[in-house]
Amino acid sequence: MDRPRLHALVAEIDAAVPKEHARVMINLYGGGPDECSMVANEAGYLRFGVELLKAAFATPGLHDRADAIPVELDYLFTEDSEVHLNWFERREPDAPPADIGWSLRDFAALAFGLFLVALAAIGLITLFTWLGAHLTSRL
Questions:
Q1: Which of 1, 78, 102, 111 is positioned for an S-S bond with 25, CB 3.0–4.6 A?
Q2: Nearest-angstrom CA–CA distance, 2 and 55
Q3: Is the pLDDT at 30 greater than 90, yes or no?
Q4: What percent of the chain has pLDDT over 90?
């Protein structure tokens, strides 16, 4: 792959396709993210492609994340677009994902685990209290 040549071609296409009047709308038509539609005008499809091509050469490290890259798409999306893409990462296929710290899912799993431990402790205390009271009443 001739990276300098590809970079030059992307820059040439970027300069040739104006941003004005380029519009993209992405909407969910079904029950999940796998059921989306994209409607765009010719300039919108061309600019969308150009912005994704530019992402291949973007400098990573956006927002203190090693893999995050800047991709400029906000100007393309129409106001009634239900989907706006706002986070992009570039990693090589064999690279492990960057550690992003604690997510909401991590906190929820920890809270649920602590809740189960607390329930188990309450259950054991109740059981031993009942057993103690039951055994002492028989003596």
A1: 78
A2: 16
A3: no
A4: 50
d(CA 93, CA 85): 21
> Does this model's pTM top 0.85?
no
> Comparing C-alpha atoms, which of 53, 90, 94 is closest to residue 72?
53
The confidence score (pLDDT) of residue 67 equals 82
Retrieve residue 131's tokens: 């057993």
Let me know: does 81 contact 24? Beta carbons within 8 Å.
yes
Picking from 103, 106, 125, the residue whose alpha carbon sits closest to that of residue 114 is 106
Euclidean distance between CA atoms 14 and 6, whole angstroms: 12
- Both tokens assigned to 122: 């309450």
User: What phi and psi values does residue 27 have, to the nearest 5 degrees?
Assistant: -130, 155
Asked whether 9 and 62 are in contact (CB, 8 A), the reply is no
* Both tokens assigned to 138: 């028989």
Query: What are the phi and psi torsion angles at 28 (to 5°)?
Result: -90, 125
